[in-house]
Design brief:
alpha/beta, 348 residues, 39% helix
Length: 348
């Protein structure tokens, strides 16, 4: 619609410019202002669309191999990621493989904009093992690598309430970061993205905000050369005590309270002067209708904060686990039917 509107405006400017060629300069000036306004609004809308991604998840249930490969196209996403450094299986006829060179031939089901997540562990030793596995140089041929993502939620306890510190210390991650830089260079990734911070279930309240990232970047700055961190990844979920809580903290009139908390959270990362990637967000305790309203409200903020939030990815495309079921963009783990939020997300 924006492109049609832009073309129409250009037609008006050209045609009226001819009519009023010898007329008022003010009239022509007003037409130029109108065009600039339309282009500004449309470019903001298009930037939101172009930066839309999806995260694949099949927690608690199997996921068909073709679904991983077709979902980014079906949902009109420009990029996607899984919680793995391995690519998803792709099926073309009777051929199913995870070898890069073979997948690259199956262009009809080749995912676009894959962003491998190098480490989904809860400790530094697991990340070290994954990085060692990727050495020597891995063959990334045939994949459109849009970015390499750092570890998942290093500041989180991941359900272990006995932890008094994050699963991965920021200083340890900074010391290991040169290995992530190597992988990003070998994959010819445009972006190397920071570890993605959890917004809840953290080791102490101070780690649920930007403190872990500040410590990580501070340690990185003392390295020679300094760490390469092209963007900062964060997750955001509404505050709740546990997944068994049946009361949605964002339902009804509380939705705007949640949205303000979200705004405050993302603004706390603006001080780092780096693009922000929102790589997980949803409302786990919502109904299907509430999930849609939550998505609409968050997307409004993302549009308004386009200068800060450069990419986003809803959690998640397909979810089998009960606690997050209404966050799923599809109604089941293998079909094509979408949830209310899924239909809305597809047409963004």
């Amino acid at each position: 619609c924006c492109w049609l509107l832009l073309l129409f405006e250009r037609y008006l400017v050209i045609s009226r410019g001819i009519i009023f060629l010898n007329g008022s300069n003010i009239m022509r000036f007003n037409l130029i202002l109108t065009l600039l306004l339309v282009e500004t609004v449309c470019m903001e809308t298009l930037s939101v669309v172009q930066h839309k991604g999806i995260s694949h998840c099949h927690m608690g249930a199997p996921l068909g191999p073709e679904s991983n490969c077709k979902d980014p196209y079906d949902l009109n996403a420009s990029w996607f990621y899984t919680w793995s450094h391995n690519p998803p299986n792709c099926t073309s006829g009777s051929k199913t493989t995870t070898k890069f060179s073979t997948i690259a031939e199956n262009t009809s089901v080749l995912p676009k904009g894959w962003a491998p997540l190098i480490c989904d562990g809860v400790n530094i030793s697991e990340c070290t093992a994954v990085l060692a596995f990727l050495q020597p140089k891995r063959d990334w041929k045939g994949w459109d690598i849009s970015a390499v993502l750092g570890p998942n939620e290093p500041n989180a306890q991941h359900g272990n309430s006995s932890l008094q510190q994050p699963g991965m210390k920021a200083a340890d991650m900074a010391n290991l970061w040169h290995e992530f830089e190597r992988v990003a260079k070998e994959a010819q990734a445009e972006y190397l993205v920071s570890p993605a911070l959890a917004s809840c279930d953290c080791a102490g309240g101070s780690y649920c905000d930007s403190n872990w990232m500040e410590e990580f970047l501070s340690n990185c700055s003392t390295r020679q050369p300094p760490c390469r961190v092209d963007a900062i990844a964060v997750h955001w979920y509404p505050p709740f005590t546990d997944y068994n809580n049946t009361l949605d903290p964002c339902s009804g009139p509380n939705l705007q309270v949640c949205i303000q908390l979200f705004k405050d959270y993302v603004h706390s990362f603006a001080k780092f002067n780096k693009p922000l990637w929102l790589t997980e967000f949803c409302d786990p305790l919502s109904t299907e209708e509430e999930s849609l309203q939550f998505m609409k409200a968050i997307m409004q903020v993302i549009s308004e904060e386009a200068s800060l939030i450069h990419r986003y990815s809803w959690f998640s495309a397909r979810i089998g686990m009960h606690d997050f079921r209404n966050c799923s963009l599809y109604t089941d783990i293998s079909g094509t039917s979408k949830s209310l939020a899924g239909e809305y997300y597809r047409h963004l």
